[in-house]
Design brief:
Largest sheet: 6 strands, antiparallel
Number of domains: 1
Number of helices: 1
Protein name: DUF2469 domain-containing protein
Organism: Actinomadura livida
Order of helices and strands: HEEEEEE
Pfam family, one: DUF2469
InterPro entries: DUF2469 (IPR019592)
Structural class: alpha+beta
Shape: globular
Number of strands: 6
Helix content: 10-25%
Distance between the termini: 51 Å
Strand content: 35-45%
Length: 104
């Protein structure tokens, strides 16, 4: 497989992933972004923890999530637990962002 073929394959996979993301976005209430992954979920719990030596880390648990990862064969995940020393971003999605305009 040439470098050009690989690039074309990855581009097609990313486009397919974007289309899937667009299709499922309205099913979820939260977007969770960590340094390694991007998730959609309806249930998220973020806990700030401290180690014995005073370092702060985050523990994020999610149920019934969708994960942005084009290399995963299945992107729906029943339970997710992330422990990280890096930033975590949790955003609540406004349902009005996904409503289609009424036909006139």
């Amino acid at each position: 497989m040439s470098a050009e073929d690989l690039e074309k394959y990855e581009t097609e996979m990313e486009l397919q992933l974007y289309r899937e993301y667009r299709d499922v976005l309205g099913l979820f209430a939260y977007v969770v972004e960590t340094e390694r992954r991007f998730y959609l979920t309806n249930s998220v719990d973020l806990q700030v923890r401290t180690t014995d030596n005073g370092e702060t880390f985050f523990e994020v648990t999610m149920q019934d999530a969708w994960v942005w990862d084009m290399y995963r064969p299945a992107r729906f995940v029943k339970n997710v637990r992330v422990v990280t020393f890096k930033d975590v971003n949790v955003e609540e999605l406004a349902k009005t962002d996904f409503e289609l305009p009424a036909n006139r």
